[in-house]
Design brief:
By secondary structure, the protein is an alpha/beta fold. It has helices spanning 3-7, 27-42, 47-52, 54-66, 79-88, 103-115, 132-138, 161-168, 215-220, 256-272, 274-294, 318-330, 352-372, and strands spanning 73-75, 92-96, 118-122, 143-149, 172-176, 193-197, 209-213, 312-314, 336-338, 341-344. It contains 13 helices and 10 strands. The strands form 2 sheets. Strands 1-7-6-5-4-2-3 form a 7-stranded mixed sheet, sandwiched between helices. The protein starts with a helix and ends with a helix.
């Protein structure tokens, strides 16, 4: 697939700059969902078996993009469920920053409260930036796992997975990848646990995701939250042990339509090339940074391309925030406003028209602020 074919699959309205919150499903994903729903609605002989084959297809698609073997991958309806399953399975301390997206610290605390087999070890960060040096300095003899966001949702900072792997040795590395897969290219197999939902940069819609486990993680994690979904065969009148490996983390039977949507999205990414897409995202982000600088806005996201993903976060003065959010709304520009900051998240398919709308909104906000002074 050529880049232009991939870009042609974007169908959102001009002004949409909120892919870090939700990625409107691509054309290929919508077509896949329609085909699967049609097959299920007609229920012709063999239709159910063919639709459920999408789960196997998902494993192959994850393998092509991340490098994890398909037998190391299970379906997960969202990132948070995968993280909970992983963290609840840890014995020992989990090093995690309280500044990470809440899914990680909440999972660490819930596991500690429920099981007493694990406990969070809190990591202080510089505005959400988890670095190998900070991790190294906080490791203790009881640390058995380190949990991080591949991309910080509040700044767009990209974590150094290779560097963290080097400093933690054979401890487990648990990674929330939902803000990264489909936007940046990283060495995913440095992680022992990779949890990712498909509703953001992959544009596969809600209810789709995957959980990938290294062999080390599969051997060490206790499948506390495990049920019949991962068993090769149903066993009646007895309770069998969990399935070995990643399959032991499968709770229920996967949603085949959601799995098909995510497989289609990953196939698109693999065909176009993750590095090609990441480069296009980086170029769009660079344009947003230029517009923010032009408007005199303080940017808290990293400037170096290697350290940033698809997220640009600006921190306007309190007297500028109201005017800025109003101007963006009036211009039809969709962003996330949170904790006094504005997060702008373009994708590879973000058009020049959308960037022009952003520029217009930023200029109008600046003019409104000057008029009030």
């Amino acid at each position: 697939m050529e880049l232009q074919d991939y870009l042609a699959g974007f169908g959102e309205e001009p002004g949409y700059l909120d892919f870090a919150a939700y990625g409107p499903p691509s054309r290929a994903v919508r077509a896949e969902a329609a085909a699967q729903e049609e097959a299920l609605s007609r229920a012709r002989p063999g239709a159910l078996e063919r639709v459920h084959g999408a789960v196997d297809r998902l494993g192959a698609a994850v393998e092509a993009v991340t490098g994890f073997r398909r037998d190391q991958v299970v379906f997960s309806p969202n990132t948070s469920q995968g993280l909970v399953q992983a963290v609840f399975g840890v014995a020992g301390g989990v090093l995690v920053a309280p500044s990470e997206f809440p899914s990680l610290p909440v999972a660490a605390v819930r596991a500690s409260e429920a099981l007493q087999a694990t406990a969070p070890i809190w990591l202080d960060t510089d505005d959400g930036r988890v670095t190998p040096g900070a991790v190294r300095d906080r490791l203790t003899s009881t640390t058995t796992a380190v949990a991080v966001n591949a991309v910080d949702a509040r700044t767009g900072f990209v974590v150094d997975l290779e560097g963290i792997r080097q400093v933690i040795g054979d401890r487990l590395l648990i990674v929330d990848a939902v803000q990264a897969v489909g936007a940046v290219e990283l060495p995913w197999t440095e992680a022992d646990v990779l949890a990712c939902g498909g509703q953001k940069w992959l544009r596969a819609g809600h209810g789709s995701g995957f959980l990938a486990l290294s062999d080390r993680a599969a051997n060490r994690l206790t499948p506390v939250l495990s049920n019949v979904g991962g068993l090769p065969d149903l066993v009646w009148d007895a309770v069998p042990p969990p399935a070995p490996g990643a399959a032991g983390m499968q709770i229920g039977f996967p949603d085949p339509v959601a799995a098909a949507r995510l497989a289609a999205a990953l196939d698109e990414l693999a065909a176009a090339g993750p590095a090609v897409i990441a480069a296009r995202v980086a170029e769009r982000v660079a344009r947003v940074l230029e517009l923010a600088d032009e408007a005199g806005l303080d940017v808290v996201s990293p400037r170096a391309e290697a350290d940033r993903a698809g997220i640009v976060v600006v921190d306007p003065r309190p007297d500028r925030l109201t005017a800025l959010t109003a101007a963006l709304l009036n211009a039809g520009v969709s962003v996330t406003v949170r904790q006094g900051r504005v997060r702008v998240a373009p994708h590879a398919g973000t058009t020049d028209e959308t960037l022009l709308l952003l520029r217009t909104a930023l200029r109008e906000a600046e003019a409104a602020t000057r008029a009030v002074r």
